[in-house]
Each structure stands twice: as structure tokens, then as C-alpha cells.
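Below is a concrete protein record.
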Amino acid sequence: MNQLLEKYNDYKSIVNNKIVYEFEDGNIIEFAPKQTEFPHLIGLHKLVDIPIIRQFNDKTNQTVSAKFLISKIKQERFLTEDIIKSSRYFSEIEDRFNRFNKDNILLLSYTDVILDFNPILIGSDLKAKYILFEETEQGCYSHLCVAETNENICYLESFFYEPSDLYIRNQKRIKIRNVKMFDNKGKLFLEDNLL
């Protein structure tokens, strides 16, 4: 079975579901996972020895977009589990790939949040303003990074696993007071007060 396609189909089930967080300081953010965020969330951009990924990473290439990659995943052409696992860079995303599923993304709603993430402290190029994180085992963390556009619209930037607290230490933490989740038709299907 092609796990890459399975993971895409699993993720697709939460596409356009709106998630709203209220923090203990009263600030509110919301985002809705987008289909086009999938390739980056699962880490495909790091597999630079795969020709279609090199084209995707080339900002001057207008043909190979996230939608194009997704079409190839659905067709099981040029991007399958076997192809990505054959990349010499697959080890860089293996934990991310193995842990990637909608449940692991949604479970990060019940954690603390890094507020105003400062990438300079660790030499990162993440644009995230918020990082939801969970300690999955002693000293190992899952991260969901939420960035903001210039228009203050939140989007999912990255999902990854880190075997240390590198992205958390020395950052400003805040607690989530309330989380609400709405289906893609706008119907509330989950609300939880956490404080």
C-alpha cells in the first residue's frame, strides 16, 4: 500500500476545517488546513534529489506547484512512498513522515503554545509565529508551526518531530484557554475549555 497517498487522504479529511484557539491572555488565532499545505507539512521539499521536488522548490518554475504535486500523489505517478523512501534525504523526514496523520495534528490542540516564536535564537528559517508542541516521549517533541501572512491570516507552515527541546527552550510559552473546531461547512463539532 502507498502510505504517501494514505497520509494525503487522511489529511484531506480535515482540509478546510476551521480551528480556533483562545489563549490565556485573551488573544485568538484561527486557521483552516489547506490541501496545498500538505507537501510542505509532510516534508517533501527536503527530498531535493527527486526531480519533481527540485522543480517544486524552484520558485521560477510556475508549473510544479503544490497542487501539481498533489495531483501526482493521487495518480501515484512520480511521487509514491517507494520513490520518496528511495531519496538519500528521506532520513531527514522519516520521523515526520511516520508520525504524520490528522490525529497527531489535532492532538496538538491540547498543548502549550510558543507565542511569537523567535527563530534567531536557534538559527532557524521558520516563519512561524506560533508553535504548538507536545512531548511525545522523554525529551522528544512534535511541533505544529503556524505562521501569519502580512494580512494576519494564519496558515500551517510545518509539522515535524524533534528529539530535543531546541524549538521550545528560551521561547515565550502561553497556555490555550479554549479550542473550537468547525467542519468544512462551518458546523461546530468540538469545543473544549482547557483552563
Notes: The radius of gyration is 17 Å. Residues 3-12 form the longest helix (10 residues). The longest strand covers residues 140-148.
